[in-house]
What we know:
Strand content: 5-15%
Order of helices and strands: HHHHHHHHHHHHEEEH
Largest sheet: 3 strands, antiparallel
Amino acid sequence: xxxxxxxxxxxxxxxxxxxxxxxxxxxxxxxxxxxxxxxxxxxxxxxxxxxxxxxxxxxxxxxxxxxxxxxxxxxxxxxxxxxxxxxxxxxxxxxxxxxxxxxxxxxxxxxxxxxxxxxxxxxxxxxxxxxxxxxxxxxxxxxxxxxxxxxxxxxxxxxxxxxxxxxxxxxxxxxxxxxxxxxxxxxxxxxxxxxxxxxxxxxxxxxxxxxxxxxxxxxxxxxxxxxxxxxxxxxxxxxxxxxxxxxxxxxxxxxxxxxxxxxxxxxxxxxxxxxxxxxxxxxxxxxxxxxxxxxxxxxxxxxxxxxxxxxxxxxxxxxxxxxxx
Length: 325
């Protein structure tokens, strides 16, 4: 009797295990997967590298919905027709007109506009705000430094970098794909001009501050503003501020007669240390010490206070050229 009970219990356990195996998820790869993938790889190598396809070539692409989503991602209210013009390049308009001529369409009801005017408006707005922001944030930096930083923020590479990470690459209407950096930067400026016409001047300035001025975050400003002759600039700054002419002094050296010689030089004025620097020879050490002194005097050293990107520069204090509405 006991033997019968044990056998029944074993049958129950085995049946429970079989039920669990039926419901358990099993992962397996079919036999046809590997040959198909090998064949696809062989065909792709045979074709060679293919040009990238734009996202608009996909069947589910809805350009108007993408423009609406672009504005909502940025938390801005754009006029959709104006935003489409801001993202349309002149080359695209010429390409479409050439297509119409090939098809024999002379008087078309569809009139395409490009973004040249909006880009010029955005260029003026962006430059005016960046100059005001840099001047307000770095009051001790001379005009040459302000101009260098402004030129960096307005450069094609910087604007194209911002436009790419805002997702504008797939929205651009251009004759070629992928669009060039010039087209990306021009479209970003046109979007700023479009925002000014859609939501006003304050929203355009906030856009410039939040997306373009923030490119200065954690940047070494001395790499942006490269001073050719720091010793002469230091003398000029000391003369303007009424400080006696700086002079270099050797603080220490190491390994004079070796290929790994190091010199430690300090720039002094009235027995006050202005800056210090190391170099493989004395002229290099003097140059680095002068750069260090300039960083301290302009308050742009690496451990400086971070930029205040929540700063709102009043539009009344920004000198704007004539804006055509």
